[in-house]
TrEMBL record:
GO molecular function list: 2-hydroxy-3-oxopropionate reductase activity; NAD binding; NADP binding
Keyword Membrane recorded: yes
Superkingdom classification of source: Bacteria
UniProt keyword terms in alphabetical order: Membrane, NAD, Oxidoreductase, Transmembrane, Transmembrane helix
Protein source organism: Neoroseomonas alkaliterrae
Entry protein name: 2-hydroxy-3-oxopropionate reductase
Any coiled-coil regions, as ranges: none
Keyword field contains NAD: yes
Group of enzyme by EC: oxidoreductase
Active-site annotation: 177
EC code(s) of this entry: 1.1.1.60
Pfam families in UniProt: NAD_binding_11 (PF14833), NAD_binding_2 (PF03446)
């Protein structure tokens, strides 16, 4: 396949916190950019910077060498790709579609099969790194799909990510992302419990975290999520309700693979409890507040 390089046209569908930042970096890399989203207002900064507007996913795909999407969940991806005005109706054979959403692995594989029937190459590439990683262009991209499609779209991946790994056939990226999310939530649970234990024992939790960062417990979660817990800064970077969705996907993945996964089961239940406590719109680090509350700690 011919490599997709600037100034080729790339379409981006979904202008959430992550999508808008990723699309901006694709345009900065020199690609011609078309954007489409349910709320045009979210695309205004990119349109002001020179991106073109497409009213539908079908229109966005028309003339694009690569189509990217970043939307909330599996049904949204199916609608964007195969709906009445979906990507599949505007994309020419040979178009590479990169789905940066986090969805069910089995669905990602099925969507890739359906796209291939129309000559379109679909790669699943959920990402990790959060809003700041999206802004900085340093995301981790976990990719599933064909070698040819991956190689052709490498310059697009390079515009948004730093660690970019082709893991296997369609759906493989989603399996890896489930692993990423269950590790994060399990680590957040441990951090929340440890800091709450320290508080109840009379320790300064900030000093406790500082000490832990100097030892083998040091981690991204302790550096970032635990800091948010201590500061009670729950302005959403990644909403708890989205992490609940991801943990439901992880729970489904370990079940499908027949994995003995008590940590995943407990982590998934904790995210259900977090959202059901009314914190669904807060950052997932609000798990720390829930653990403290259940432990009888009052702020």
């Amino acid at each position: 396949m011919t490599p997709i390089t600037p100034p080729a046209r790339v379409a981006f569908i979904g202008m959430g916190v992550m999508g808008a930042a990723m699309a901006a970096n694709i345009m900065k890399a020199g690609f011609a950019l078309t954007v489409s989203t349910r709320s045009k207002a979210k695309a205004e900064p990119l349109l002001a910077a020179g991106a073109e507007w497409a009213p539908t996913a079908q229109d966005a795909a028309d003339g694009a060498a690569c189509v990217c999407l970043c939307v909330p969940d599996t049904p949204d991806v199916e609608q964007v790709l195969f709906g009445e005005e979906g990507v599949i109706h505007g994309a020419a054979p040979g178009t590479v579609v990169i789905d940066f959403s986090t969805i069910a692995a089995a669905s990602a594989a099925e969507f890739a099969r359906r796209a291939a029937e129309r000559g379109v190459i679909l790669l699943d590439s959920p990402v990790s790194g959060g809003p700041q990683g999206a802004i900085d262009g340093t995301l981790t991209c976990m990719v599933g799909g064909s070698d040819a499609g991956f190689s052709a779209a490498r310059a697009v991946f390079d515009a948004v990510g730093r660690t970019i790994t082709l893991l296997g056939p369609a759906g493989s990226g989603q399996i890896c992302k489930s692993g990423n999310q269950l590790i994060i939530v399990a680590a957040m649970m441990a951090a929340a419990e440890a800091l709450t234990m320290g508080r109840k024992a009379g320790l300064d939790p900030a000093l406790m975290r500082q000490a832990l960062l100097g030892g083998s417990a040091r981690s991204f979660v302790l550096e970032n999520h635990a800091k948010r817990m201590l500061e009670r800064n729950f302005k959403p970077g990644f909403r708890a309700e989205l992490m609940r969705k991801d943990m439901r996907l992880a729970l489904g993945a370990v079940r499908e693979q027949g994995v003995f996964a008590p940590a995943t089961a407990l982590a998934a239940q904790m995210m259900e409890a977090l959202v059901n406590s009314g914190r669904g719109g807060e950052d997932c680090a609000s798990l720390g507040a829930l653990v403290a509350e259940l432990s009888g700690v009052k702020d």
